[in-house]
Amino acid sequence: MASITPRSGGFQARVRRVRSKTQVKTFPTEAEAIDWAPSIERSVDSVSPSRSSPLESHQSVTLHEALQRYSLEVTQGKKGAVQELGCIERFQRHPPLRIGRLRHSSRAT
User: Fold this and answer.
1) 4-10, long-range: CB within 8 Å, 24+ apart, which pairs?
2) Is the Cα torsion angle 80, 81, 82, 86 positive or negative in sign?
3) CA distance 24 to 2
4) Which helix (H) or strand (E) holds 15?
5) pTM score of the predicted model
6) Are 94 and 100 in contact (CB under 8 A)?
7) φ, ψ at 101 (rounded to 5°)
8) Are 13 and 4 in contact (CB under 8 A)?
9) Alpha-carbon distance values, 23 to 13, 40, 48 (Å)
10) Cβ–Cβ < 8 Å for 33, 13
C-alpha cells in the first residue's frame, strides 16, 4: 500500500515493496498522488520471474553448483586464486558431515 504525505509545495507518494526499490514522487495535489500510487504498485507487483531471486522462482541450487559458479566468477580475479581453488576442490570432493548427524552422535556419548 502506498503512503501519501504532505510536503511543502505538494504531496509525496511513496510505494514500498519487499525486494524492490522504493518508488517516490511528489505531486502538486493529493488527488494526483493517490491516482499515481496504484499504477506503480501494479507495475512493481508484476515484475517478471526472470528478474527475481532463485528462491522466489523455486529454483534449487546445490552447494556444489554454487561453489563451482563462485570459483569461475569470483575466485579467478583474486590474488590467492590458486589456493582458494584448491580449498574449493577439496571441499567438493570431501564435503563435511551433516551438522544434524554430528550433533546427534555427540549426544549419544
Assistant:
1) 4/30, 4/33, 4/34, 4/37, 6/30
2) positive
3) 10
4) strand 10-15
5) 0.42
6) no
7) -65, -40
8) yes
9) 8, 8, 18
10) yes
Listed in sequence order, the DSSP H helices in 5-98 are 30-45, 63-73, 81-93
Which residue is associated with the grid cell 590467492?
Answer: 80
The helix or strand, by DSSP H or E, that contains position 4, with its residue range, turns out to be strand 3-7
What would the grid cell of residue 2 be?
502506498
Cell numbers that stand for 66 in this block = 554454487
Distance of CA 6 to the CA centre of its chain: 32
Give pLDDT tens digits along the chain (109 positions). 788 999 988 999 998 887 778 889 999 999 999 999 888 888 877 764 444 555 555 567 788 888 888 998 898 888 999 999 999 898 888 877 655 554 555 555 5
Cell numbers describing residue 25: 514522487
Report the distance separating Cα 109 and Cα 106, nearest Å.
Answer: 6
